[in-house]
UniProtKB/TrEMBL annotation:
CDD domains: B12-binding_like. Signal peptide: none annotated. Residues 147-274 form the B12-binding domain. InterPro entries: Cobalamin-bd, Cobalamin-bd_sf. This is Cobalamin B12-binding domain-containing protein.
Length: 274
C-alpha cells in the first residue's frame, strides 16, 4: 500500500456517486458468481492492512456503526460517517486503516456468519469502494521520475498479448520507459503495482470474457495504490465498451496515437491527478 500523504481535506462527492453507481451497475450485469468475486476482492484488499494496526484505536462500537451506515437505506450514510471523522480531525491514514480496513473485515465476518445477506455485502462493498475513491485527492502522488515512464500490463489470463507488446515498443521508440508485465497472475500484478512508483498504468484486455478479471484488477489497484492513473485498451473497448465505462478507469484508448496523446497529457500535468 502506498503512503498516505494528505493533499487537502476534500471528499469528492461526485466521484463517490459515480464510483458507487458504476460498480453497482456493473455488478447488476454480471452473474452472481462474478459479483461475489468483486465483493470479496474489496473486502480482501481493504482488510489486508488490519494486522498492522494498533489495537487501541477504533473500537468495535464505532466499527459496527460504520458497517450499519454502509448497509443502510441511505446511500450517503457511510460517506457522512467518514466525512464527520475527517471534520473531527481524524487523519486520512486513520480513516483508511483504522476504520475502512477494519469495517471491511467486520463485514466479511458478518457475511461468513450469515448475519447479512449477499445483497447486503454487494451494496456495502460498493459504498466502501466509492468512499475510497472519493478520498483520492487526499493521497499524494508526486512525480518522482524525470523520464516519462509507465507500466503496460495484460489482464491475467489474457493470451493475446501482441498488441500490448507492440504498444510498448512504439512508446519506447518515443522515449518512454515502459515496464511491460504479461503472463502475471492477479495477485502478482497487484502486489507489484501496489509497491510501484509508477503513476500511469495501461491495462490491455481481450473481449467480453475479460470483464470480470479486468474489473477485479482495477478494484484491487484502486484500493492498493490510489494514486494510479489507470487506462484500458484492447478488444474489450470495442466489444464491451458499456461495461468498461462502469469500471472506474481514468480513460479508454482505441489506438496507440490516442494513448500517446492522453498519457503525455497526464505526465505533463495537463490532466489533474485521479
Amino acid at each position: 500500500m502506498q503512503d498516505y500523504d494528505e493533499i487537502d481535506g476534500r471528499f469528492d462527492s461526485g466521484q463517490y456517486l459515480q464510483s458507487q453507481l458504476g460498480l453497482r451497475t456493473l455488478k447488476a450485469r454480471l452473474p452472481e458468481s462474478s459479483v461475489e468475486i468483486l465483493a470479496r476482492e474489496v473486502i480482501r484488499r481493504m482488510a489486508a492492512h488490519v494486522p498492522d494496526l494498533p489495537a487501541e484505536s477504533a473500537d468495535d462500537e464505532d466499527l459496527e456503526a460504520l458497517c450499519n451506515a454502509l448497509l443502510s437505506e441511505d446511500d450517503h450514510a457511510g460517506a457522512r460517517f467518514i466525512q464527520d471523522l475527517r471534520t473531527d480531525g481524524t487523519s486520512v491514514q486513520e480513516v483508511y486503516l483504522l476504520y475502512l480496513a477494519r469495517s471491511a473485515r467486520m463485514l466479511g465476518d458478518w457475511w461468513n456468519d450469515s448475519r447479512i445477506s449477499f445483497t447486503d455485502v454487494a451494496l456495502g462493498t460498493s459504498r466502501m469502494y466509492a468512499i475510497m475513491r472519493a478520498l483520492r485527492y487526499q493521497f499524494n502522488g508526486p512525480q518522482t521520475e524525470s523520464k516519462r515512464c509507465a507500466v503496460f500490463a495484460s489482464v491475467p489470463g489474457e493470451t493475446h498479448v501482441l498488441g500490448v507488446r507492440m504498444a510498448a515498443d512504439l512508446f519506447r521508440k518515443k522515449g518512454w520507459e515502459i515496464d511491460l508485465k504479461i503472463d502475471k497472475s492477479h495477485d502478482q500484478l497487484v502486489d507489484e503495482l501496489s509497491q510501484s512508483d509508477a503513476t500511469v498504468v495501461g491495462l490491455s484486455a481481450g473481449g467480453e470474457k475479460s470483464i470480470e478479471p479486468l474489473s477485479k484488477l482495477i478494484i484491487a489497484l484502486r484500493i492498493s495504490n490510489p494514486k494510479l492513473f489507470i487506462f484500458v485498451s484492447g478488444n474489450i473497448v470495442d466489444e464491451a465498451r458499456d461495461a468498461v465505462d462502469l469500471m472506474d478507469a481514468d480513460g479508454v484508448m482505441t489506438d496507440v496515437e490516442e494513448a500517446m496523446r492522453i498519457m503525455s497529457s497526464v505526465w505533463d500535468g495537463a490532466i489533474p491527478p485521479p
